[in-house]
Q: What sequence folds into this?
């Protein structure tokens, strides 16, 4: 590009000299100064760095991975380079999603898939790193959007040898119930592990949930309290504005620095059929899982325990700071301190209602459509 | 259902309930669900007409996944009419349709971007509790109708929405 601009300057110079009419000189001068300006701009534009072939642990200024690989050198992470083999899908590139995307990029993640249905607006500028003209648009809640979404998750070009879907993790960073249910549906169908997140509209509380289809509760297993019980939402939500982040008031409370954690077993009466299928598979796979666990335990025993470092000149030791487990931790019936159950446990299956007998009613879709159109006509 | 006006309540009880829990990806079951949707919409529309309370028109595309039409509201003896549209979500009927009035986009805070009316407080808990028995007709009756009744007077009184005769005469003068 620079050589092209240089030639253009020469051409302009020749033109200027050969011109008999001096009245055009000013405009040619103007053009020349513009080309000079363009040349400067071209010099400033950063050249795109080619992909670094290996993650090196060498501590030199020019190595973008030296600080990350230090984690491996210090024994914090066993195989840090493997991060480049992983791909993560982020649904919703808002306050949570854009930060997650940035952090994963800084960590050297192999591949990111980003989804959002909205346009970037100036009102988003306090939490996004994109400019309004850079946008990713896909509404995953529509039939067509859902197909595009799932097929992009199934795309295995990044790592053809991987089992299951084409991604290792899906992060749901959306702001509404409908989109969460869609991510839940897709992940249940694909048996894809995912994480759900939410921040309350006053930004001082939020929640994080890990969802492993079949093994832990899916998003439909335990719908948000306000929706499930019909608790008057006005008690939970400020009047006036319809801000987006809704049933996210449970979980972390930053004002009190209160962060309860709990395990949620899948709901055997879950309304999501894909979830029920995954639950069955998980139960069927139990013997194999137990055998693998027993084998791992055996292997662990057979390796004699020895100190990680031969000498310990400074007498450094790791102190166990986890709190002693008092209650039966395996039982998910026990709630962490500060939480109470709002609803009684269900003891009855909701029977699917019998299809209504409509003997004398019309049963042809086109006929019904015509009837409605007739009503619409007048 | 406390807090609902008696007219809405009595209309609601007369809209036929649905029974098939199926979404647009469920093939034959979805066709069955669509038939039920049509039956309840036909019943609701005819009931509105018989009670001189006709207030919407709606029809769908061939596979029943996108619905478009008009709805209107009478305020101070003037009729205000709006385009009405929504997609059936893939997770339908677990999640309710997000009803859109695109002409009102940006004119009221009781709306999400794209003109989706806010149903969160007054309607979604009801929908969740009555899944799969509620359908499109119920969403219009319990979701859209109260929204119009609450918002149109405010929009008109604040000048955000002008009657079509007003705007026509304003542009002429």
A:
């Amino acid at each position: 590009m620079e050589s092209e601009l240089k030639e253009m300057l020469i051409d302009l110079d020749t033109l200027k000299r050969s011109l008999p009419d001096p009245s055009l000189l000013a405009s040619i001068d103007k053009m020349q100064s513009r080309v000079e300006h363009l040349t400067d701009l071209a010099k400033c534009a950063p050249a795109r760095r080619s992909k670094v072939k290996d993650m090196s642990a060498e501590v030199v200024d020019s190595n973008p991975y030296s600080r990350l690989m230090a984690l491996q050198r210090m024994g914090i992470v066993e195989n840090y380079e493997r991060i480049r083999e992983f791909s993560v899908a982020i649904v919703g590139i808002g306050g949570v999603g854009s930060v997650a995307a940035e952090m994963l990029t800084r960590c050297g993640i192999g591949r990111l898939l980003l989804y959002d249905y909205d346009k970037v607006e100036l009102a988003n500028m306090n939490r996004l790193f994109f400019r309004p003209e850079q946008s990713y648009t896909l509404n995953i809640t529509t039939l067509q959007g859902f197909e595009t979404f799932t097929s992009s998750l199934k795309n295995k070009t990044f790592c053809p040898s991987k089992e299951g879907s084409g991604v290792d993790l899906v992060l749901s960073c959306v702001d509404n119930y409908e989109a969460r249910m869609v991510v839940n549906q897709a992940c249940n169908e694909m048996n894809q592990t995912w994480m759900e997140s939410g921040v309350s509209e006053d930004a001082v509380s939020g929640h994080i949930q890990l969802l492993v289809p079949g093994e832990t509760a899916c998003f439909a297993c335990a719908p948000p309290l306000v929706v499930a019980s019909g608790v008057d939402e006005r008690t939970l939500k400020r009047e006036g504005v319809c801000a987006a982040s809704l049933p996210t008031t449970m979980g972390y409370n930053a004002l009190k620095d209160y962060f309860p954690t709990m395990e949620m077993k899948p709901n055997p009466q879950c309304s999501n059929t894909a979830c029920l299928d995954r639950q069955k598979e998980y139960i069927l796979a139990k013997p194999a899982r137990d055998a693998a666990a027993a084998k791992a335990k055996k292997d662990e025993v057979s390796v004699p325990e020895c100190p990680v470092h031969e000498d310990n000149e400074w007498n450094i030791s790791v102190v166990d700071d986890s709190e002693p487990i008092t209650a039966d931790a395996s039982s998910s019936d026990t709630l962490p301190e500060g939480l109470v159950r709002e609803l009684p446990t269900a003891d009855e299956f909701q029977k699917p209602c019998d299809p209504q007998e409509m003997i004398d009613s019309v049963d042809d879709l086109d006929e019904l459509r015509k009837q409605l159109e007739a009503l619409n006509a007048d | 259902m406390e807090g609902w006006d008696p007219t809405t309540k009595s209309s609601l009880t007369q809209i036929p309930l649905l029974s098939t829990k199926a979404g647009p990806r469920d093939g034959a079951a979805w066709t069955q669900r669509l038939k039920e949707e049509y039956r309840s919409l036909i019943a609701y529309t005819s009931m509105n007409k018989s009670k001189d309370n006709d207030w919407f028109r709606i029809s769908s595309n061939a596979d029943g996944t996108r619905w478009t039409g008009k709805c209107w509201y009478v305020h101070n003896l003037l009729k205000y009419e709006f385009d009405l549209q929504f997609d059936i979500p893939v997770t339908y009927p677990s999640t309710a349709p997000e009803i859109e009035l695109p002409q009102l986009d940006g004119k009221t805070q009781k709306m999400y971007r794209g003109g989706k009316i806010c149903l969160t407080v007054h309607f979604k808990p009801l929908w969740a509790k009555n899944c799969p028995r509620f359908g499109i007709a119920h969403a219009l009756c319990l979701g859209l109708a109260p929204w119009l009744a609450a918002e149109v007077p405010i929009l008109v009184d604040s000048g955000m929405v002008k009657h079509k005769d007003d705007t026509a005469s304003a542009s002429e003068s």
